[in-house]
Amino acid sequence: MPDADELVANALAAVRGTDVRQAERQLDQLMVGTGAADGTTAVDAALLRRLVRGLGRLWPRGWQPVDVDRITSRRLDARAARLVRAAMAAQRRDQAEPVPAWWDDQLSELGATEGGGSVLAGWASREGLDRADALRAAVDTLALVESLPPIAVLRPPPGTSGAALPRSGGSARSGSPMLDRVRALLAKAESTTFPAEAEALTGKAQELIARHSIDEALLAAGSERGDLPGGVRLSTDTPYAGAKALLVQEVAAANRCEAVWSDDLGFATVLGWPADLVAVELLYTSLLVQATAAMLRGRAERRQGSGRRTKVWDESFLNAFALRIGERLRTATEAATDAADQAAAETAGAERLLPVLAARGEAVRERLDTLFPGVTRHRLSVRDAEGWSSGTSAADRASLDVGGARKPRQVPGRPDPR
């Protein structure tokens, strides 16, 4: 009789194949177990060991806990994602090498905490699964984890020294009085029903984040730290993944960052300096909520008898919204930069701002070339003039609150309305 590890390997190989009957037979063998008195427990332990080992191999290949959680939910379901969280908690318990604080922060935010007893049995009980369904879901989850490709390493994973990597990737959850003020403005701007009030609130928020970014740039110019630009990954799940990627790109460009879209993996990677990455993350999250709400309102107000399909109209709306928002953001950023540069020029002996920003921008582009040498551009099409016009108008009303072995990643290009 095969041992537990061999049973798991056989079931995994069968699930990866095309013979459905063979896969079911191997799952049945898992159900039977090793034939020993503790055969079921041994199978559960073997599944967990292999899942933990698979997760451990992902971390040096660029994956972070939030990335694995997101793609598991996307390609499988929320139930499988909860199993991955339990496995990550089990791995963290036995991790001997140094673990950065941000890693534990991600696990905590995901709720990746381990209970007592068998991880697999405890998960199955919480999900209300019988043993057959639990084993099938566990093998599918293991197959996904072991199939994930290398991606860009944005932050030092556990057990590394962090040499030649950024010390901070930036996070919209980082606490500071300035960010607290920005979030408060964002919450008010999103809740008000008066466009003029939203404009004023978000204008103030944009001013705060722009000043903070400039202050950080000048402070860094006077230090000797050899940091590299960091990065964050933002979800661009369906529906309308291309339009979401375009919004990421427009927000990133307005905040001196670079964006690369991994459409097959469902996220966009944004590279930049920490303060700018915070701005991108907050703005993207807020504007995506505003764009979706405006799209739904606009859809309800469309002319009766319109011949265009809703999906075509929605895509055109969101693409137009993204491009117009990008224009507004760049205008605001340029105004703040010009004012700050003039102020610096009037201060005796002050560091001029524009050369500092130019050097930082070049560092971000170099980081892009290093991490994504095969990047390509992808042009999006807009096929509904009515949706385009409505999306542009909605963007004018939107609040600017700041609250491996794969195909080359794609940066969405500017669409052509047709």
Order of helices and strands: HHHHHHHHHHEHEEHHHEEHEE
Instruction: Describe the largest sheet.
Output: 3 strands, antiparallel
Shape, per Cα inertia axes? globular
Strand order within the widest sheet? Answer: 1-3-2
Query: What is the terminal-to-terminal distance?
Result: 65 Å
| Proportion in β-strands | 5-15%
Number of folding domains? Answer: 2
* Strand runs, count: 7
Per DSSP, the total helix count is: 15
Helix content: 55-70%
Q: List the uncertain runs.
A: 402-411, 414-418
Give the rounded overall mean pLDDT: 82
Q: Which structural category fits the helices and strands?
A: mainly alpha
Radius of gyration: 24 Å
Pfam families: DUF2786
InterPro entries: DUF2786
Region (Disordered): 157-176, 383-418
Organism: Micromonospora noduli
Structural account:
With 418 residues, the chain is mainly α. The protein has two domains: 4-147, no CATH class; 177-417, no CATH class. The protein is built from 15 helices and seven strands. Strands 1-3-2 form a three-stranded antiparallel beta sheet, with helices on both faces. It has a two-stranded parallel ribbon with strand order 4-6. A two-stranded parallel sheet has the order 5-7. Strand 2 and strand 3 (267-272) form a beta hairpin. Helix 4 runs antiparallel to helix 5 (78-93) and helix 9 (177-191) packs antiparallel against helix 10. The longest helix is centred in the last third of the chain and has 36 residues, at 310-345. The radius of gyration is 24 Å and the shape is globular. The relative contact order is 0.11. The model is unreliable at 402-411 and 414-418 (pLDDT under 50).
